[in-house]
Amino acid sequence: MMRQRTSQILFNYWNEVRGRRMAPRRFEIEPARITGILTETFILERLAASSYCFRLAGTRICDQFAQDLRHHNLLDVVAPGDRLVMEDRLETIAAHGAVGLFEFETRTGGRTGRCEMIVLPLTDARDLVTRFLGAMSPIGTDSWLGDGAMSLGSLVRNELIWPEGRPYPLIERGRMAPVFRPMLPPSRVVKANEREFRVFDGGRANDPRAER
After folding, report:
1. Which of 6, 8, 13, 139 would you call most buried, defined as having the most Cβ atoms within 10 angstroms of its Cβ?
2. What is the pLDDT of residue 162?
3. pLDDT score for 180
């Protein structure tokens, strides 16, 4: 369940652009449509199974981490003990069209808090998920207050949301209509005057009126 307004706004916008597809194309995302939450949004690029680099990161996120996150790997930002879990979840998001929802403990200058992160897939011209649209926002008004750089602590909650109710490849498979193959009655080949004819049993041959 999405607790943060930022996550809800971003998900609703992404879902509107997506339509019935697994995910919207990356160039379909219009920042002007989400100006109110841009400072808490980011875009990731999948370079490898263990490399999800920030292409863009909102100013509020960068201010909290006290650095520009561009070109940094998201998996290097999370706690080492949660790296494999995040890697697995991101792979599922890319392959099956899930939406990832994560909650982390945060530490800033001796203060602790929590933040929510949402990650949504974006496709390229080949219909492959190579980018991700996301947001990170504090839970509670003072979760990101404090002196110094923020760091992510333990992953305390993670879940996958299926916009269509189940993995998208299964949805697509169900939409494929079976090939229609008409059932023809038994037939036989009849030769007459050096020509061949295929005669199907039934029809007037089995009609009692044909004998009158």
Report:
1. 6
2. 95
3. 47
Rg, C-alpha atoms of the chain: 28
How high is the pLDDT of residue 33? Answer: 96
Instruction: Give per-residue pLDDT as tens, 86-126.
Output: 999 999 999 999 999 999 999 988 888 999 999 999 999 99
DSSP string of the chain, one letter each residue: ---SHHHHHHHHHHHHHHTTSSS-BGGG--GGGGGGGGGGEEEEEEEETTEEEEEEE-HHHHHHHTS--TT-BHHHHS-GGGHHHHHHHHHHHHHH--EEEEEEEEEETTEEEEEEEEEEEEE-TTS-EEEEEEEEEESSTTTT-SSS-EEEEEEEEEEEE-TTSS-HHHHHHHHSPPPP---PPPEEEEEETTEEEEEESSGGGG-GGGG-
* pLDDT at residue 147 in the model: 74
